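Sample A.
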Amino acid sequence: MVGRARAHLGLLVLIGLVVMLATLLTSAIAPLTERTADRAIAADVRDAGLQGAVVATVSRPYDEGQRIRDPKAVAELRESAASAQRAMPDRLAAVVRPGVTSLTSPSMHLLDAGPGRYLRLAYLTAPGAAPAVTYTSGGPPGPSVPAAKADVEVTVTTDPWPVQVALPREAADALGLQVGDRVEAEDEQHRTATIVISGIFVAGDRDDHVWAAVPELLHPIIGRSDQLTSVSAAAIVSTDSLPDFQLALPFDDLTTRVVFSPQPSQVRWKQTERLMQAIVSLKTSGSRGSSEVSWDSLLDQVLLDSRATVSAAQGQATVLIVGLLAGVTLILVLAADLVVRRRSDSLVLMRERGASLMGIFSELAAESVVVALVGSALGTLVTWLLVGDVGWRWSLPVLVIATLAGPVLATTRAARAADDRRVPANRSARRAVARARSVRRLLVEGVVLAVAVLTYVALHQRGVVGDGDLTASSAPTWFAIVGGLLLVRVLPPATRLVLARARRVLGAVPLVVAARTSRSAGRALPLLVVAVTVAQLTTAVALVATEQHGQAAGALQSVGGDASWETAPDRSVSAAAAKVSSSAGVRAAAAARVVEGFGLASGSSSATVRLVIVDSTAYQRVLAASPLPDAPQLARLHRRADGKVPALLLGGDRDLRDDLQVRWEDTPVPLTVVGVAPRVGDSTEPVLVIDRAEFESAGVVADPGTVWAVGPGAAAALKSAAGTAGTVDVLTDVVDARRSAPLASGLVRLAVASAVLLLMFAVLGVALAAAAEAPVRAESLGRLRSLGLGRLDVRRVLLGELVSPVVVGAVAGVVLGAGAAVVMFGSLSLELITGQSATPGLVVPWWTSLTVVGLVGTAMLIAVAEAARVGRLPLAALLRGGDQR
């Protein structure tokens, strides 16, 4: 055993290296997949913001007695928060921050300076230190009673009772209020309250999660039009003024909530299902009517959507992994076949001397186990050093194939060598044996075809879900295998046809090449190795290219151009858009009013749409100057008919187009649908596009709040126009953010790693296939040299014989990989990774064909080296004994 291993040490080391490389990648998949899933879940929870918060609404006991200023109001509020915290399940409490308790009022109309000014009062408290604030004038709110009575219960007879509040500086500037101002406010039921401004402050840490409970505290909402400027802001109530707050406003105007913000870093992929169950259980417990706390949260929906995205990414990763394992299996079998070919004589001799098949299998299995374990151990060690953890699920198939391939092939070879069954003498019996052999081959091919059809149907019925659905995920691999088997079937007749044509051509080289190729065309394994590995490589590259192209297209659709500006609706935005359009490096710009979730109704139907009120002429220029699809029907928006405003509608049912009408600021505006709207943004909702001038001619005002710009200078021009108002989204930043997302970047790294390994295996397959036939080629070429074939012709023969099957296999692999992408990418849920509302368009990079060039170059180098070696051997030695290696 030691001598046999030493004689073929190079091939055994090669097998060990293949096992090591395969194990290095496959053992890293499980830990990296889990970490990537954790990062993706955390990113989705972080992006959800307040939508992912768990909110407890605490009912307040109604006091029908005397109006009493209760100094224990703060303690009672904190006890309510603690009670809500205790009611939360432990697994949910472990992933959320301590609750931010708030007592808030609705937005109240300030009566001192006309309409359009609204103020919301809020008391906020959270465990730990209060958020730092710096008072620029005045001080924190104090009690509305003398200091001596602040800590005792006081019966109140004054109505309305004043409450002191502090304003953020932005809110004070927007509302025009100063320290010491005393203003009257009323709620929706026209019940009044007296508000006293005690101070104006600036938040020390604007990112403190406490402020998120009432966003208007840091970001007052300002809306302007020709008729009115509206401001909606918030003010804070202090611990000292909280008892006054409860007296100043009617009981049913105050709402007590505890907001538990999730900690994204604490949410793990494996616990998301249990978290969803806990949240649903918590929400239903509050709806039964017996609890003092009602619960609400969209965190379960956020986790559900995130799980769907992660599951789709894991399914796509499984497609890549299965393709890689197919390439590893084929290359290990091909390497084992070469080892068996080199040991053929010794195996036959062992069998003839009485060795049992089990004994031969056991000896070779011991050898292969050592090689496989050493290679696997080295790969696992490197993975552990680089990643810090290892997974065994995907590495076990590599270990099993590396262990069994050699012993099984060798035992089969030894069994055939010692087969004492006689060859039938008559022709009909031999034909019956040949037919039986053909039937067995057809049966195997039929099973492979049936499995491929099964996986294809499974893929189209349910797509790829998670990393455990091997049936659907293996469909592209089985597609390539069936294509490779079809190639193996077609190639021998094709080579015989070429041989027949070559006999009519003058010169020995074409005839010899055709004859040699026809003889070796029946070897299925080398052709399968090249075709399947190149097909899986092409599929991996196409997957990455398609997703990256889809991410760019989705980002362009989302942004609406090279840059966009979102701000509060204002008449000045139109002038800013005109200025931006004339800036250097800007090809076009358009201002629009975009309203999400706008209610639309017709005579017999209704829907929620994305309403876009835009300067249609400018928007048409934006579409023409960008890669976005053109919309020539925008020109129809200027053709007013029957007193109705023309509109373009995308989506929605057919009945929605009859007697269409929108209500804008309590003014009904009749519409008539004149065409199909372009898709604006990446929403799946129907889109309604109206020309702004035509819309305002109906007697309404629709100030724009969005500007789209196209051109290399669009981002700079919009940032200059925006200043500190609103937000500017830049296309390149959005594309980079989508491509650097955990799932997208993880899939790219996996695809690149598997593509590199598959390319190495394809090159190795070409070399091993050439090495397997090298002794026979050397012997035949030696005889041809003795018959007068020159050195140049020998090189041409070798080039033709080695390059031809490689070209056929590599080209077939590229075609099969591209075909699998065309047929199957629609079922891989790529849009969940690209962030689009539809499946991205397929992209197969042209440079994928360079794989063919690389493999052909490898075959040419082998041919040149083999020609030089054959040329150095003496003719007499070749004639006496063939290859003398």
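Sample B, a different protein:
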Amino acid sequence: MTVLRTSLRNFLSHKGRMALSAIAVLLSVAFVCGTLVFTDTMNTTFDKLIATSASDVTVSPAKVDNAQQTGTPDTLPASLQARLARVPGVAAVVPEVTSQQATVADGHNQDIGSTTGAPTIVANWNPTHTRTVGITSGHVPLAPGDAVLDADTAAKHHLGIGDTLRVIAGPGDFKVTIAGIATFKTTNPGAAVVYLDTPTAQQGLLGSRTAYTDFALNAAPGVGDDQLKARVDAAVGHGYQVQTAAEVQAQNQKDVGSFLGPMKDVLLGFAGIAVLVGVFLIVNTFSMLVAQRTREIGLMRAIGSSRRQVNRAVLLEAVLLGVVGSVAGIGAGIGLAVGLMKLMGAMGMHLTTADLTIKAATPLIGLTVGVVVTVVSAMLPARRAGAISPMAAMRDAGTPADARTGRVRATLGVLLTAAGGTALALAASASSASAGSGLLAIGVLLTLVGFVVVGPLLAGLVVRILGAVTLRWFGPVGRLAERNALRNPRRTGATAAALMIGLALVAGLSVVGDSMVASATTQMDRSVGADFIIQAGNGNPISPAAAKAIHAAGHLAHVTDRTDVAATVTAPDGTKDRTVIAAATPSYTDDLQAKTVQGRLIDAYAPGAMSVPEGWAKVHKVTLGDRLDVAFTSGRTAQLTVNAITSDDTVFDKGAMYMNIADARKYLPADKFPANNMMFAAAIPGQQSEAAAALKAATADYPQIKVRDQADYKNMIQQQLDQLLNMIYALLALAIVVAVLGVVNTLALSVVERTREIGLMRAIGLSRRQLRRMVRLESVVIALFGAVLGVGLGMGWGIAAQKLLALSGLGVLSIPWTTIGVVFLGSALVGLLAALFPAFRAGRMNILKAIATD
């Protein structure tokens, strides 16, 4: 109890000095708990929607592995409805037509689909939908051409009853008029939903009034779902997928989980980085508090406290800090989750706080993370506190540095850094991506730990260099700042290491990102011969009507069709490989000039011919002239001759097999042939601008179609990568914020530690302004030290990663010097901001009281 009372007293007496460490714990725990609450809430939202919409039993077309992407949903014959109605236990059969492959445009020809990646769903209005939505304005589709639009999409695009919509689907385009507005009874996760009358939906989405996409069965009273499923299976035989409501829910939850799972892992990964950075802050805080209380601890030892009791007292303070920070972090995490929900709502994914899900495990995880991290971080300072002897009560505060420990630490740091550097070098020269990625991970880990351990050793050299470059301009005040930063290399190294981690990741990712863009640009300049690249949005295929309009555009030398045909290729060694073959018109060899290691690529477009990639050919011992069995999914099997083997040294279409699109059509029925996923066009020489205008005019009625010239395509790659990197930088900002708190805390505690010294300096003539400048310059040099370590480490990681990615065709190394410069300037600014409070506090000290301080 005495130890507990002592710990509680010390904690409360130093609560101001603990505050920033508590904030670091709070932020780390908030990120962890916020991620868990946010993803659990999204799961709850989707689960409610799935559970509400699932029928007792659903009959769908059989799932086909490696299916062709035709742009039109698979269908069931309308005649099946009568057979299902006769199954004992079926109370009702609801025919459904649903498509997620259509585009819906408003009267201004703007796509009204979600921008968050949620699908655009077009379906027939049927009784099943009344469980999920209700008509809040107008009426249900009663006549051909009537449509019901969900309320969220209507509000977003300012649409109402009487407005016209245009539906662009595989079978063709058609117009409908909004007759009603429907509001979701559960939360709509962001999908744009349009309901049509059944005949219109059948003809427009499926191209047939004698087909449906699903049949929803309602069970009669007393008939269980599993029982009804067994009866349906027996009645309809093979060739159909029959699922209970529970199975449909499980499948949909799995699909949702495949999206939410990685997102959750990524967010928790960044939370882990913030936690790691927080460790340095907490270690520094407790180390400095122990050093400042050396005389006090020595007196405790002199009057009978054992090492174990002193150790336990410090750890109990850490537990209190962890509990306080964690409890606050749990509350902040819930607020963060609500904020993320509001942000997603602004982007179009509607989540409601009514579904806010806080599982019992979430606060327990947050509390455990906060307390364990704090206690583990405090163990080393606690051990040092326990080692203080009673004689320390007779000395000035502070403990002498252990030279032997410093030498051991330096040796260990150099060895770890050297081992990590070796692993990075081996990764950069690896012959396979699988082996290289493992070496890269080991190299990153070892160099990171090595730099953290060797930081105090580097501080002496790097800070002196930085001081010579930046601080000497400020005369004696600059030299004082440099000496203060060098006074305790271990503390300076730990403070800089916290900042180093975030900046190393920023620098490494910048190198990789810049190299990816430079590589893609170089590959485009080298291999893409087409003037225009044409794609549909959201990964949808190009509709036949749009493709026809593109072919009819003027001022074009040629237009290339390209699609991916699903097939199973049997190699000469008997291996069966499910893959897709890039089927295109022969002009594709001009649009994408892929290198070959054997044969000519144009020969792969001859009837009965194909090409294979170099790596695949080596693995399966395929040579020029070999005949391969190619079984087209939902089609016939062909024997194709290998007329070319393409090089793996490419970014675009890497690893692709090629064949003539006209040849591929021979082996697939027309309704199973996939629509174009890309098209290419070349302008008549000297008519590029006229061709661009003609293509834009030809696709004006198809808002989902994007026509890009090579410059536009490069910009798209740059923008996509910039968006990804900016999102990563935003997540890394939390770690950098925690690191900044570490600088603030170190300086604040350092000011307290040097109270008497500051008083003496003021007494001999140092002005308040000079004192504040000294503290700010000390902060800047520590931040720049962290930037030097972080940028150096990050560039090493980035260069090694780029060399490894060169195996995938990304062979151009590009250093983003602008970003590196911004990192250094930003670090100096961070140093200035971090020093504002400590410098202000130092400047306000009373000279006489400061001199009188022990």
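Observation for Sample B: DSSP finds 25 helices and 24 strands in the chain.
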